[in-house]
Amino acid sequence: MLKDLKAFLFKDNLIDLAVAVILGTAFGAVVDALVKSVLMPIIAAIVGKPTFDDIVISLGDTDIGIGTFLTQLTNFIIIGTVLFFILRALSKVMRQKEEEAEAVPSEEVVLLTEIRDALLDRR
Questions:
Q1: Could you give the residue ranges of the DSSP H alpha helices within the chain?
Q2: In angstroms, rounded to a whole number, what is the distance separating the alpha carbons of residues 113 and 102?
Q3: Alpha-carbon gap, residue 7 to 23, rounded angstroms
Q4: What residue ranges do the domains of the chain occupy?
Q5: Is residue 40 very low, low, confident or very high in pLDDT (cuts 50, 70, 90)?
Q6: Do residues 50 and 28 lie in contact, with contact meaning Cβ atoms separated by under 8 Å?
Q7: Coil, strand or helix: which one is 64?
């Protein structure tokens, strides 16, 4: 049983997943700080409040905190937009690297080309 547990815990995909979760959590904290410390104050300058939490709808004796929902929705839209542009830039960089790698022939191709050219010159 311990052998199976060790095999499970130290599989490459499980370690990769753990690293992804840790990096995702750290990245989430950075984006959250950007939203709360930079973007929401800009919204506060425009709207007058840093959050919409004070907006409520009263139905009889009950208050519905629609403002909290609006604040979280705004955060989600901002975070989604930031992630979109970061992933788009990263994708562009990765595509460029792949194109550069494809443009440079491998050593085997270069060697075979030289051999072909040498054989053609002998004719």
A1: 2-9, 12-34, 40-47, 66-103, 107-122
A2: 16
A3: 24
A4: 1-48, 51-123
A5: confident
A6: no
A7: strand
